[in-house]
Every structure is written in structure tokens, then in C-alpha cells.
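job 3f2a | input accepted
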Amino acid sequence: MRLLAALGFLAVVIAAGCGDGGSGGQGGKVEVVATTPVVADMARQVAGDRAEVHELLPRGADPHGYEPRPSDVRGLSRADLVVRSGGEIDDWLGDVLDSAGGDPRVVTLMDSVPQRIEGDPHWWQDPRNGIAAAGAIERALAAEDPRGRAGYAGRSRHYSDRLRRLDRSIAACVGRIPRPGRKLVTTHDALGYYARRYGLDVIGALIPSRSSRAQPSAREVERLVDQIERERVRTIFPESALSSRLERAIARESGAEVGGILYADTVGPDGSYLGSLRTNTEAIVAGLSGERCRP
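job 3f2a | predicted structure (295 res):
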């Protein structure tokens, strides 16, 4: 496994970074390491120019199957603050963080979510949870860099206001879908928080798991096809980080259409968390109602 290679390479990696000094980063900036692109985008919005934010997971990659690299170990060894998503999404972080040494402050954003869905790590699909996460990032940055407290607070408020406006716009867009048609089938079970927030029913997922690493059996695929036909699901939605071959095959079998791509585990095509929510909403509304609505 690449993880074992990374840990085996640890001595060389840490030795290469030992001359970089302590916390504070380049130009006195806080060195922040974020596990996923979604978390990194949130951290950048709150940190502004007072921190250097580095993301471990490449944009567009599947976090469920990620194996850390030696460069991740090096980055973590230099971090002042580590911002992680939490749950199965980045449970690969623990061993690497222990091996990297150092003593960074660690904040797990899932811990700030007030009403979790048990076993579901995709908390950011509800913008209200994004607001809670921004507050957790603000507090962690202020604790690491007290002189920047006022700036962190101001940027967190501004970002939270944007999320509140987006939340209202998404609700208005989803409201255009006729209630009998608010039935969601995706690649894996990643939109539970979104569905709960905006009143959709998750009928099923092609990969019957909240991790994309699972594989459906032939019997599970057959049951899903039957359910799509029975529930008269109009559209099934592929995800950006995964192949859409299974979606196309099930669409042929069930008579459903393949809808627009969803950004379930990463940022949207514009590189932002807000962009993923907008793009997902546009695809879902178009696929389930035939209308165009850009929140």
C-alpha cells in the first residue's frame, strides 16, 4: 500500500523538513493543512491572507479510497493547524498525523455539526452545517493566531451570510420540483443531509453504501432497478469522482435518464464549496423537474 510506503519514507521526509523552523509558516503566516478540498476552501474563506492553507486530497479525487503520500506526511509535520472533515471521509489521517510528529492543533469539523445523520460523514451537503464549520475554523484560527481574531470573525460572518443566502436560494429551487418527483438516486449514499434539508426522498444508491469503495452485487443492482421502476424515478445522477458506466447501464434497464454530474465529495467546477452546492442543485432540479434554476 502507498500508505505503508509513506510511513516507511517518514524518516527521510521529516529530516528534509527539520530546517524549516517552528510554527508560523512563511512570513509569519499560520500553516494550515486541510484534508479535503471542501474543508480547504472553507478554511481559506475564513483565514484570508493570514494563513497558508494546503489541501491533502487533490480536487476531484475520491476521498473514500485515498491513500496518503510521503508529501502529505511532510506537510503535516510543518502544520500549525490541521482541519479535518471527520468520519470515514478522512479516517486515513490518524496514523499519518501520528507519524508526522509535531504538535499541531487539530479541529474536526464534523464535531461542530448539531444534528448528524448517524454513520453519514457528508455533513457539508447541508449549508447550515457549513455555517457551523466556519465558526469552528474561526475559533481554531483565533486560538492559533490571537492577533488575527477580528479578521477571522469578520470573514466567518461574511461567509456564513453567503451560506444563508445560498440555503434560501436552494430551497426555492428545489421547491419547483413537484412533490411526487422529489426522489433521488445517486452513485453512492452521499446526499442524505441535502435530502433531509430540502425535502427529497433518497430512494437508493447504485453503490449501497456511504463509502464509494463498496461494490454492488448483481442482486442489489437488480433490486435497485426494480425500485426505480416501481417509484417511477425520473433521473439518476452520476458523481464527478466516479465512472458513470453503472448509471448508464441501470438507466437502460429501468427507463430512467442519466442526469447532470453531482459533486458529492469535492468542490464544484469553480473550485468552491458553494459552487458544488449550486451545481448539484441545478442538476437535481433540471433532472427531476425539467426546469432550470441556478441558486
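job 3f2a | The chain has a mean pLDDT of 86.
job 3f2a | closed
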